[in-house]
Amino acid sequence: MDNSQGTQYLERLLGRSLRIHTTDTRMFVGLFKCTDADRNIILANSFEYRMPTTSAVQAAVSENEYTEGSEAKSTTVRVNMTSRLIGLIVIPGRHITKIELE
User: Membrane-spanning regions, if any (predicted)?
Assistant: First the structure.
């Protein structure tokens, strides 16, 4: 992809909802506003999502074992991610591991 094709592709993404994963396992979802040569990305109206802590997962597993009783135990446990409204955010390109179009 040459420079003009890349620019056109990025222009088509402006205002669209992106999901960005970072090196510290956080995920940001927001409207794509801009980027630069260092791959820094600006999102508007964004939310931050964090993976559950180890203690939260262990508590869910313990609760699942308790509620299952004598029945066959489930091998999967559902634990919600925590989230918060961020608004406008700059995500440094060096910390981005994955970008998805929502």
Answer: none
Predicted pLDDT of residue 69: 55
4 assigned to some structural domain: no
CATH of the domain at 58: 2.30.30.100
Predicted confidence at residue 71, as pLDDT, reads 58
**CA–CA separation, 13 and 16 (whole Å):** 5
List alpha helices for 1-102, DSSP H. Answer: 3-13, 54-68
The answer as to whether 1 is a domain residue is no
Whether 53 is in a domain gets the answer: yes
Looking at residue 15, its amino acid is G
- pTM exceeding the 0.70 threshold for the entire prediction: yes
Q: Report phi then psi at 59, rounded to 5.
A: -65, -40
